Fold Glycosyl transferase, group 1.
Amino acid sequence: MRKIKILNLAFTDMGGAGKASLIFNEMFNNEGYDSRLLVKESNVENNNVIIFAKKKDNVFVKFISKQKGRIKYVLNRYFIFKDKYFFFKLNDNLSEISTKEILNAVPFVPDVIFLHWITGFVNSKMINELAAITKAKIFWIMMDNAPLTGGCHYPWDCEGFHSSCSNCPAIKLSFLKSKAEANLATKKLNIPLNLELITCSIMDFNRAKNAAVFKSNTIHKILFPIDEKKFSVADRDYAKQYFSIPSDKKLIFYGASNINNTRKGIKYFLEGIRILQNIFLEKGIHLDNYAILIAGNVTTNLFSNIEIPIYHHSLLNEEKLINAYQASSVFLSTSVEDSGPLMVNQAVMCGTPVVAFNVGVAVDLINSGITGYLSELYDSHSLAQNLFRILTMDNEMEMEMSKQCREMAIRTFSYKAAISNYNDLINQSVKDKIIY
């Protein structure tokens, strides 16, 4: 019997969602599957990653294409879409790539296809064609809410995707608002009934259950996998040395790839920390007993009113990111609209409790008083009080909470736990196929 052949499709292997597709591809290969990742854009060298290459255009065509791209970006960013919804493409039917070109780039006919973050690469018509041509079972892993909607990646409190996406709030121009409705109608027409959707949080699972496009499809919830060998518990005082932070300071870790993004809620971080400072001062606790490690691209003048010592770093590589979790007494997430953030999974796997709003995967992973504390959405006072609870724990309580974090993570979303769930899905999907 030959290996089961898996094709992963993603727009890129860069950024958070792109790296996620790499994680799945690696996990499948380590489990013994023949898995390849096909991407439109890449910056990694990996034998199991295939970069889709169109025929090379001449210099003039390249120049015109680049200028068109710049004009399109300006129009979309400033005139057509509202930033917070992350809506990138008005017409989901248009694609520069054909389904046959995608399949010709891969050295096999896949038995199973996993779709990841595919906006700008694979549309719903192509998904239908992939299913028809290959007869492969298709799973779509929700990295955000784009699979559910007529174009936006984050719907916030909009429930238009429950029915038709009419009068889309993400589109500024009234005469273009029907485009989202047309996109969703196209999805409804093309998404195969046997395609199965995989969500990575209960919030996304519930949204998917209400989505018009997946009314008749099977929907799963499998927490996003974290490598338990890389993301591990270590001595906190030792880990602080990597950032030149004194060992006697209890550390709050806060970070995101783009902290200024509205979804990441930096407003509530600033409010929460100011309230926390007041609580400390009211109780006669010295602010110098604590420190804040911030990772991400952000202007430091935002922190001018924070008196707790701040250690700011730009984006951290994976090794440094792990060190940051290991050094910290608590990870603070202020995301207000998110399918993750993945940093919550990573922190908990490193034995670091989390304080977060009841949004995204935090709802799944935070058991208040056990693995951290959940706060009501937009409640900065609750964030501050929950940070205070963790930062003033004695060593025994702190060690117990760290232990609970690690044990829960290993049990529910380690590679070992995740691949068990994916093995079941894959084996069930090919059970009636002759694999030879």
Observations:
- Residues 278 and 284 are 10 Å apart (CA to CA).
